Amino acid sequence: MSGPRITVVGSLNMDLVFRTPRMPLAGETISGHAFRQIPGGKGANQAVAAARLGGAVTMLGRVGDDAFGRQLRDCLLADGIDASQVLAQAGMASGVAGILVDDAGSNSIVVTPGANMALTLEDVEALAPTILASDLLVCQLETRLCAVMRAIEIAKRGGVKVVFNPAPMQPLRADWLALVDYLIVNETEASQLSEIAVVDRATARQAATKLLAMGAGSVLLTMGGQGVFVAGQGDNSRMLAAVPVEVVDTTAAGDTFVGAFSVGIGQGLGIVEAATAAQYAAALTVTKLGAQTSIPTRAEVEQFIASRAARAPVEAA
């Protein structure tokens, strides 16, 4: 493996994807267009994105002792990811996500975590040498909170940069944000963490400013078609415009952004440059269906950027 060394602690799920003309109402049955079974899970998606975009990735997670578990692990191996610490949990099913994608590209997701919740503090402690030898640690919240926070503590102790995507959101101790170098949140997560409703650029600035005051090193607030608000210490903030594309499915766009951004930071890019490159990778993702099936390679992203007259403009926020 080559490129920045990135360790991902997180989830692996098998996504069961239903294409539907619209979201069904409560109690309603409608006919869908198609069904696909696609590897996913926020942790695995972010690991795959980082690997395809040039990172040397190791993943820590748990799958069930079932066919889904074997498929999920094989998919990581196919992308060159070190999956030696993705182990099968006896007597448990792998994580599964039921995903509805409508004709507008919007999605609704129900996740059953399964073996993801079997990840323990002892598992993380055993991986400490790998974390400490990494350039970055990437975490989300589809596994046990205590295991995630222990991984972050180990990284911080060893001077390893931490990229934290607190999704799905759950209550966090405020002092934990001081352990995070790069906090990546969407509007909902930012609103819940900061207690400021994020609806536009002005409220994004307010929420990001509060999250910085709570201890986060930098904040990247992704806002879909509005772009991403990037805020650093010292009133260093920018709004990066979204890259316009025809949306097919927004699944894994956020995860691709996280993986791509992590690679950019690991390669020495500044936060704005890394976020801009991640915007292009995420934009490509939404033009395809599914999670890992939609994540682009480095060559695809470079070609996509070259096909545009200029990089996404940086707008003063």
From TrEMBL:
Molecular functions (GO terms): ribokinase activity
Domain Carbohydrate kinase PfkB: 5-298
Name under which the protein is recorded: Ribokinase
Purpose: Catalyzes the phosphorylation of ribose at O-5 in a reaction requiring ATP and magnesium. The resulting D-ribose-5-phosphate can then be used either for sythesis of nucleotides, histidine, and tryptophan, or as a component of the pentose phosphate pathway.
Pathway per the UniProt entry: Carbohydrate metabolism; D-ribose degradation; D-ribose 5-phosphate from beta-D-ribopyranose: step 2/2
HAMAP family, A to Z: Ribokinase
Family annotation (Gene3D superfamilies): 3.40.1190.20
Known EC number: 2.7.1.15
Requisite cofactors: Mg(2+)
Known partners and oligomeric status: Homodimer.
Family annotation (Pfam families): PfkB
High-level lineage: Bacteria, Pseudomonadati, Pseudomonadota, Betaproteobacteria, Burkholderiales
Main location class: cytoplasm
Active-site positions on this chain: D255 (proton acceptor)
Catalyzed reaction equations: D-ribose + ATP = D-ribose 5-phosphate + ADP + H(+)
Cofactor stoichiometry and binding remark: Requires a divalent cation, most likely magnesium in vivo, as an electrophilic catalyst to aid phosphoryl group transfer. It is the chelate of the metal and the nucleotide that is the actual substrate.
Free-text activity regulation comment from the record: Activated by a monovalent cation that binds near, but not in, the active site. The most likely occupant of the site in vivo is potassium. Ion binding induces a conformational change that may alter substrate affinity.
Segments traversing the membrane: none
UniProt similarity note: Belongs to the carbohydrate kinase pfkB family. Belongs to the carbohydrate kinase PfkB family. Ribokinase subfamily.
Binding site for K(+): D249, T251, T285, K288, G290, S294
Gene: rbsK
Binding site for ATP: N186, T222, M223, G224, G225, Q226, G227, G254, D255
UniProt: substrate binding residues: N13, M14, D15, G41, K42, G43, A44, N45, E142, D255
UniProt keyword list: ATP-binding, Carbohydrate metabolism, Cytoplasm, Kinase, Magnesium, Metal-binding, Nucleotide-binding, Potassium, Transferase
NCBIfam families: D_ribokin_bact
Organism: Janthinobacterium fluminis
Location relative to the cell: Cytoplasm
InterPro entries: Carboh/pur_kinase_PfkB_CS (IPR002173), PfkB_dom (IPR011611), Ribo/fructo_kinase (IPR002139), Ribokinase (IPR011877), Ribokinase-like (IPR029056)
